[in-house]
Each structure stands twice: as C-alpha cells, then as structure tokens.
Write a structure and sequence with these properties.
5 helices; mainly alpha
Length: 83
C-alpha cells in the first residue's frame, strides 16, 4: 500500500473537519469561556488524533489502498459511494 494514498485520505478528512470548524471558533469561545474551550479543544484534538491513528493502523494491517477501500470493507459497496 502506498503511504501517499493513506496520507491523502487522512488529509482530506482533516481538511474538511478543520475547514468547517474554524468559522465556529469565536462563537464557541464566547459561549463557553476561554479555559473550558481550551480543555475541549485539547480533548477534541486528542480524540481526532486517536481516530486517525487507529484508522491508519487498520488500513496498514489489512493492506487497503485508501479510506474508501476501508469503508467498503466495513460497510459494503453502497456506503463506499457515500463516503
């Protein structure tokens, strides 16, 4: 399996999450406060890292070529089109 395909899949998922979330940051800081926001931000970063790490381990372990191959194996061909 090419490392580039896996990195590309992870980058696409992170870019979409970061792209939509960055516009919401000022509102969230104002709504919950600075300290709780920092704690939630660190927790979200940790869980995002953990999810990407586990996903990359599965892709490498089962020698899949991309994120879409992983979703097809887990959920079938129909969900691959959605993912």
């Amino acid at each position: 399996m090419g490392q580039g395909a896996m990195r590309g899949s992870i980058f696409a998922l992170l870019a979409s999450a970061m792209g939509t979330g960055v516009f919401n940051l000022p509102y969230r800081v104002n709504a919950v406060g600075v300290i709780p926001f920092i704690l939630m931000f660190l927790a979200a970063g940790f869980f995002s890292y953990l999810g990407m790490y586990l996903m990359s381990r599965l892709i490498l372990r089962f020698d899949m070529k991309s994120y879409s191959d992983m979703t097809e194996r887990a959920y079938g061909n129909t969900f691959k089109r959605v993912a």
